[in-house]
Amino acid sequence: MRSAFHIRIFLAAALLLGGILFSYPAAQADPSRYPEFAQQALPANVTPSFISIDELVKDVKAGKKPLIIDVRSEEEFREVHILSALSAPLAQFKAHLPSIPKDRPVVLY
């Protein structure tokens, strides 16, 4: 059951990250650190939907395989990230767009 093992590792990492984000104030999003992105609007054809860690865990347990993308800086990614997450910092995010699959859920954090 190699896939079950990976799911358990992913869930443990997601829960750990959730605990870090909710218990460590410095890990909270700070728009002043990214002024070039704070005032941008989404394209008209993009409608985000926001989910909680609990919803993400539920989806993974239900067999969905979301692509998890960490859009923070490379430095922040090196400090802590979800185990299976890919790093695609906002400053270079447009370059990653062609490689994002359209046939599975994508979670950005």
- For this structure, the quaternary state is single chain
How many domains? The number is 1
CATH architecture: 3-Layer(aba) Sandwich
* Regions with little confidence, pLDDT below 50 for 5+ residues: none
Shape assignment: globular
Let me know the number of strands.
3
Proportion of residues in β-strands: 5-15%
Instruction: Compute the number of helices.
Output: 5
- Fill in the CATH topology: Oxidized Rhodanese, domain 1
Q: Tell me, what is the CATH class?
A: Alpha Beta
Quickly list its features.
109 residues, mainly alpha, Oxidized Rhodanese, domain 1, 3-stranded parallel β-sheet, 8% strand
Question: Brief description of this entry?
Answer:
The protein has 109 residues and is mainly α. The protein is built from five helices and three strands; from the N terminus they run H-H-H-E-H-E-H-E.
Protein described:
The chain has 109 residues and is mostly helical. The protein has a single domain (2-108), classed as 3-Layer(aba) Sandwich (Oxidized Rhodanese, domain 1), CATH 3.40.250. The chain is 41% helix and 8% strand. The protein has 5 helices and 3 strands. It has a 3-stranded parallel β-sheet with strand order 2-1-3, with no helix packed on it. Helix 4 links the parallel strand 1 and strand 2. Helix 1 runs antiparallel to helix 3 (53-61). It is globular and about 40 Å long. The mean pLDDT is 78.
